[in-house]
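Let's sit down with a protein and look at its sequence and fold side by side. We need material for that, and I hope you will provide a protein of your own picking. Once you have written the record down, we can walk along the chain together.

***
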Amino acid sequence: MYYVAYISHETQYVLAELPDCPGCQTFVDDRRPIAEAAREALEGWLEAHLVAGRIPPRPRVHYGVPSGTMIRVPVRPGLAAALNIRWARHDAGLSQKELGARAGVSQQQIAKLEDPDENPSLETLQKVGRALGLEVSVEFVPSDWMRLPAWAATAGSLATRAAEGSRAHKPAVRRATARRAPGFAASAAKKRRRSRG
């Protein structure tokens, strides 16, 4: 799981702003460590929301950056698990006690799973996932995946990793967009004909 950070330069500093997390930003005086500073700021922001019992916003797909560049800021696996359980429980409209009953674990165990410092076992995650009608998915990614081009980072998927360093993926994205456009144009033309006659 990752969030997007907008990176910009302000005087002698480099600023990272996480648009999906209102008020979450950080700065450094050298561009190189901005990714780690952004990760620390993001994880602190997310943890504070979970500990306070609030529901942090989910990461969104970003198709552009107002100015500067964009990077992906990964969330450590234990925190990502806590966030996903919290979001899924909220979406299902369940209390911790109700989810615990469905999963065959105690309310305290669900509370521990939603704790940002907890490191749950895969077996426990699978139990809770099944109780929510969800499957658990684990994936390993290359350590340099944060450095993908901005157009790849906006896709929200690691499937674009294969296209790194090549422009082959960009035309495919354009073609997919172009394929939708004729249907839209045909629909708009039908509406114009109906309104004329």
Observations:
- Confidence is low (pLDDT under 50) at residues 149-195.
- DSSP finds seven helices and four strands in the chain.
- The domain at 77-135 is CATH 1.10.260.40 (434 Repressor (Amino-terminal Domain)).
